[in-house]
């Protein structure tokens, strides 16, 4: 062997892309997933449940989706709910029915047999636990997501594949209800869950509708990748709601970061060659938890109303704040972002001077990176740099050159702060209201 020959030649990259939220969710991932999906053959949702709403606007009609991946609006795309998702069959079927009533073909939807089921007692326990926590509540959507993932971790969960074996389903259900009904009765003074009613709904009502969609999704994903098809992995929620890397305990119960795609869809890291981070031109979060750049008063209210910052599913008001470059730099690290897509830039028009958090102050110390200790984060105050705003309506812009100079300066400043290029910019809610921004 020639001594200059490389011992390990780099393999040709497989065309896989991950799209992930970079803040606390609600960044507009659905819009850009829908946009990027045009180039794809398959879109895979890899974690979360129906606590994660995403909205797509097509020809003026708004589609609020919870479980079905964003690529469902394209006939050429196979949409997949991967093994890392938790599924409420009733919600999924209702969403499929809604889309089919609008003329969209749901036969291309595939559901992993290894995905876990959300059952009625998960939702009741979620609601009761939040109520019991009182002022210390986590701010969950009370849809049973956390309890379903908890059962998965303690190995008492029921999976989608169990629907295909009624005997096994009933045996597992009866076993787990011994503990759940004891908790409901002794801790919360509630009536026990009815095993017969649950078994009837899941086996007699839901199973016939879902059975044609249940598949070996790991095999399907790998067949697509190995044949050179482009596959998009779609995360729900966002980086700072990640169970391990978010603002714990005010987080979700799974791993939305880009690495979660490997576990939640059954692929290895070498398959991924592009990671798109989606972030708002400002920041919002729902529920409790630290928020260094949070805005209060009239300006915060204005952003909420202009941006329609209310939950897709829950209708809860989102907490608004200025763009936080410190958290975005951390999101770049955690996800190995290759590029950014910035949404809702149009909402900043007419607000006057804009603030961008470039660092935190903690008891006189300047922090350029996110502190690892939660108590420190709670005591951080933002260090801002002020940029000129703009009054122009940019919602009709289709090219970078059409944006006001102050708008371009704002985006260029964000890009310089976070260290990755901004490729796409959203200037309105519509499907076509975006700009290819990269020079």
Structure notes:
The protein has 439 residues and is α/β, with parallel strands linked by helices. Helix 3 crosses helix 4 (145-153). It is built from 12 helices and 20 strands. It has a 10-stranded mixed β-sheet, with helices on both faces. Strands 14, 16, 17 and 18 form a 4-stranded mixed β-sheet that branches. It has a two-stranded antiparallel sheet with strand order 3-4. The protein starts with 15 loop residues before the first strand and ends with a strand. The model is unreliable at 1-11 (pLDDT under 50). A hairpin with a 2-residue loop joins strand 16 (354-362) and strand 17. The relative contact order is 0.15. The protein has helices spanning 29-37, 89-101, 120-133, 145-153, 166-186, 195-210, 217-226, 260-265, 297-306, 325-335, 374-378, 405-418; strands at residues 16-21, 42-45, 54-58, 61-65, 78-81, 86-87, 109-112, 116-117, 214-215, 231-234, 272-280, 283-285, 319-321, 323-324, 339-343, 354-362, 365-367, 381-387, 422-426, 434-436.
Strand order of the largest sheet: 9-7-5-2-10-1-11-15-19-20
Structural class: alpha/beta
Structure summary, number of beta strands: 20
Radius of gyration: 22 Å
| Helical proportion, percent range | 25-40%
Poorly predicted sequence stretches spanning 5 or more consecutive residues: 1-11
Query: How much β-strand is present in the residues?
Result: 15-25%
- Provide the residue-averaged pLDDT: 91
Distance between termini?
44 Å
Which outline best applies? globular
Number of helices: 12
């Amino acid at each position: 062997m020639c001594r200059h020959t490389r011992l390990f030649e780099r393999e040709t990259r497989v065309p896989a892309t991950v799209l992930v939220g970079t803040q606390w969710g609600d960044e507009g991932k659905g819009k850009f997933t829908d946009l990027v999906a045009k180039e794809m053959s398959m879109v895979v949702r890899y974690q979360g449940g129906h606590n994660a709403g995403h909205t797509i606007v097509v020809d003026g009609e708004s589609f609020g989706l919870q479980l079905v991946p964003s690529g469902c609006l394209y006939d050429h795309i196979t949409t997949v709910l991967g093994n890392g998702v938790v599924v409420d069959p009733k919600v999924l079927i209702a969403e499929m029915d809604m889309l089919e009533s609008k003329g969209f073909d749901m036969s291309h939807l595939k559901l992993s047999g290894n995905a876990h089921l959300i059952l009625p007692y998960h939702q009741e326990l979620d609601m009761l636990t939040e109520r019991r926590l009182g002022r210390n509540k986590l701010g969950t959507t009370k849809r049973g997501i956390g309890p379903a993932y908890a059962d998965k971790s303690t190995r008492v969960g029921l999976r989608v594949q169990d629907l295909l074996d009624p005997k096994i389903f009933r045996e597992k259900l009866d076993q787990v209800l011994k503990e759940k009904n004891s908790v409901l009765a002794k801790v919360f003074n509630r009536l026990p869950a009815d095993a017969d009613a649950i078994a009837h709904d899941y086996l007699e009502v839901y199973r016939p509708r879902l059975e044609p969609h249940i598949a070996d999704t790991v095999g399907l994903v790998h067949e697509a990748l190995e044949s050179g098809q482009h596959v998009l992995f779609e995360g729900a929620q966002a980086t700072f709601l990640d169970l391990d890397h978010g603002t714990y305990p005010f987080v979700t119960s799974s791993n939305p970061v880009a690495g979660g795609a490997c576990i939640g869809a059954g692929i290895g890291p070498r398959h991924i060659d592009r990671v798109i981070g989606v972030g708002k031109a400002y920041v919002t979060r729902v529920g409790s938890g630290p928020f260094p750049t949070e805005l209060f008063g009239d300006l915060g209210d204005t952003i909420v109303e202009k941006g329609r910052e209310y939950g897709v599913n829950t209708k809860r008001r989102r907490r608004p704040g200025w763009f936080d470059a410190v958290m975005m730099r951390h999101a770049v690290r955690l996800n190995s972002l290759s590029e950014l897509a910035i949404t809702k830039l149009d909402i900043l028009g007419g607000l006057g001077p804009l603030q961008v958090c470039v660092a935190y102050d903690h008891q006189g110390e300047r922090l350029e990176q996110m502190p690892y200790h939660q108590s420190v984060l709670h005591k951080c105050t933002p260090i801002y740099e002020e940029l000129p705003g703009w009054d122009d309506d940019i919602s009709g812009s289709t090219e970078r050159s059409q944006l006001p100079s102050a708008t371009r300066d704002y985006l260029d400043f964000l890009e310089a702060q976070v260290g990755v290029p901004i490729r796409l910019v959203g200037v309105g809610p519509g499907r076509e209201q975006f700009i290819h921004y990269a020079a």
